[in-house]
Amino acid sequence: MSITTVRPRPRHRWTPGDDLVAIYLSRHGTKALPMMIGGIANTLGMPEGSLVMRMSNFSHPDGPWTTQRNSLGTCVLNLAS
């Protein structure tokens, strides 16, 4: 009987390029892309959950208070509610 040890994946070190991908995905999703989130994460060498968490970090500043963007893409606060 042999025991197999599972080695954890090495920790991913985020690069500025990885952050750009996460920002893009948090804003636009994958509708216009040939891959889903899992494929993109695999290509970047990270777990899918790590990329999803980073995407949520970048989408968090929008928060529930913002409902619109102006022509420059800047969030506009909705203070009416």
How many strand units? 2
Helix share of residues?
Answer: 40-55%
Cα-based radius of gyration, to the nearest Å: 17 Å
Largest sheet: 2 strands, antiparallel
Shape: elongated
How do the SSEs run, as a string of H and E? HHHEE
Q: Provide the number of structural domains.
A: 1
- DSSP strand content: 5-15%
- Sheet/helix structural class: mainly alpha
Distance between the termini: 65 Å
Averaging pLDDT over every residue, what do you get? 77
Order of strands across the main sheet: 1-2
Total of DSSP H or I helical runs spanning 4+ residues: 3
Low-confidence stretches: 76-81
Textual characterization of the structure:
This protein is mainly alpha-helical and 81 residues long. It has one domain (16-77). The protein contains 3 helices and 2 strands; from the N terminus they run αααββ. Helix 1 (16-28) crosses helix 3 (48-59) and helix 2 packs across helix 3 (48-59). The protein is elongated and about 50 Å long. Residues 76-81 have low confidence and may be disordered.
Pick out its properties:
81 residues; mainly alpha; 3 helices; 2 strands; elongated; 9% strand; disordered C terminus; 41% helix; single chain; two-stranded antiparallel sheet
Please write out the topology:
Layout: H1 16-28, H2 37-44, H3 48-59, E1 66-69, E2 75-77
Antiparallel strand pairs: 1-2
In brief, what are we looking at here?
This protein is mainly α and 81 residues long. It has one domain (16-77). 41% of the residues lie in helices and 9% in strands.
